[in-house]
Amino acid sequence: MSRRVAGIEIGADRLRLVVRSGRSAPRTYDVPFRLDAIDEAVAQLAALAGDVHAIGVAIGMAHLHVKQVTLPPVPHDARRQMLTVEPERWFAMAPDTVAAICLTDAGELAFAADGALVDACVRALATWATVQRIDAAPLAVLRAVQGSATRTLTVSIEAGANEFGIVGIVDGQLRSARRVRTVDADFRPAPQPLVESVDPVYNVALGAAMSLDGELATMLLTPTLERRFVAAAQRRVAWWLAAASVAVGTLVWAAGRSRVAVLDALEAELVTARAGAIEGSGLALRALSIDREMAAIDSTLATRADIQGAFAALGARLPLTAVAQRVRVVGADWQVEGNASNASQVLAALAAEPQFARVRFLAPSNRFRDGTEDRETFAIAFAIR
Fold first, then answer.
1. Which of 4, 23, 116, 383 is packed most tightly, with the most Cβ within 10 A?
2. How confident is the model at residue 52 (pLDDT cuts 50, 70, 90)?
3. Residue 149 vs residue 98, higher pLDDT
4. Percent of the chain scored above 90 by pLDDT?
């Protein structure tokens, strides 16, 4: 019997499902979706589609925050950690929100979703079958495109109310993803078909059903789910090693019978076990890295400055004639740049704020003409007490 795998898109108000089985044409299903009734929706899908061996999940654009990022040229895990420590600095999320975050291989696009939603969906789907992969919808679409004949195209997908998602793929690589609002609630661009036998409205779910055994590095995971996925991979490694031990025992028992055939079988088993052991070593190191990341997150959250309070103080102290064009925050150190009718007045106003320490100019002020008014630039640094 062919192995049946399911790809599910968590849409704005529907769950869309594609079931793939061997060379048979994919089958599609959809049911209404509400987060507070996710268990009932999953039960409906299971009743419609029957048993499946594994599930790939794609979190739809309606639930995603998308950010074009420029990060230092450091390893992928380190770049992802920069986003994970304080996601509210990068995405429009409330402070202390537990987020599921992923970063593309090139590190140019980042996606975040509410961790409570992701955990709830995975928990409900796990009652049906094993959830092997969790993706942001644009990355699921990318896999569907990579499995088609076209390598460069722009794909439209569902997003929230009065909006739709646009995903740009060039030479088989994800280059852009954004949500576009529309004043016409009934307007939706026609999605492009990627597989002849599948309605294009299921493009995201189709991609979620492909390549379920991909790398963890680009999955949309909360810290809890990342630990669970790493532990599951380690258990698979342990099983492979146990299988290798059984193969050795079988060789000893059958030493006097068909020696050559047993040796060939053992060699194949050992090759598989060795590859699994190498992966297991890497996963163990990843687990240690996750522990360090969680400790760093706890430490940062315990010691970070009150961002909202600092912004409120900054807004209250800036003179009415001042325009803040750029604010940069690194820990407790702040930098604000802009222009005003008098840059010295801005420095004096910020220095009078009890929350601000070490208030100073970072660069000389430059005078310029704005229409009929003379203006001065300012670049001021200070620290939050």
1. 4
2. very high
3. 98
4. 38
Q: What string of H, E and C letters represents the secondary structure of the chain?
A: CCCEEEEEEECCCEEEEEEEECCCCCEEEEEECCHHHHHHHHHHHHHHHCCCCEEEEEECHHHEEEEECCCCCCCHHHHHHHHHHCHHHCCCCCCCCCEEEEECCCCCEEEEEEHHHHHHHHHHHCCCCEEEEEEEHHHHHHHHHHCCCCCCEEEEEECCCCEEEEEEEECCEEEEEEEEECCCCCCCCCCCCCCCCCCHHHHHHHHHCCCCCCCHHHCCECHHHHHHHHHHHHHHHHHHHHHHHHHHHHHHHCCCCCHHHHHHHHHHHHHHHHHHHHHHHHHHHHHHHHHHHHHHHHHHHHHCCCHHHHHHHHHHHCCCCCEEEEEEEECCEEEEEEEECCHHHHHHHHHCCCCEEEEEECCCCCEEEECCEEEEEEEEEEEEC
* Structural domains in the chain (count): 3
Question: Quick one: 149 and 91 in the same domain?
Answer: yes
Q: Are both 248 and 186 inside the same structural domain? A: no
Look up the CATH number of the domain holding residue 363.
3.30.1360
Is the confidence at residue 247, as pLDDT, over 90?
no
Q: What is the pLDDT of residue 55?
A: 95
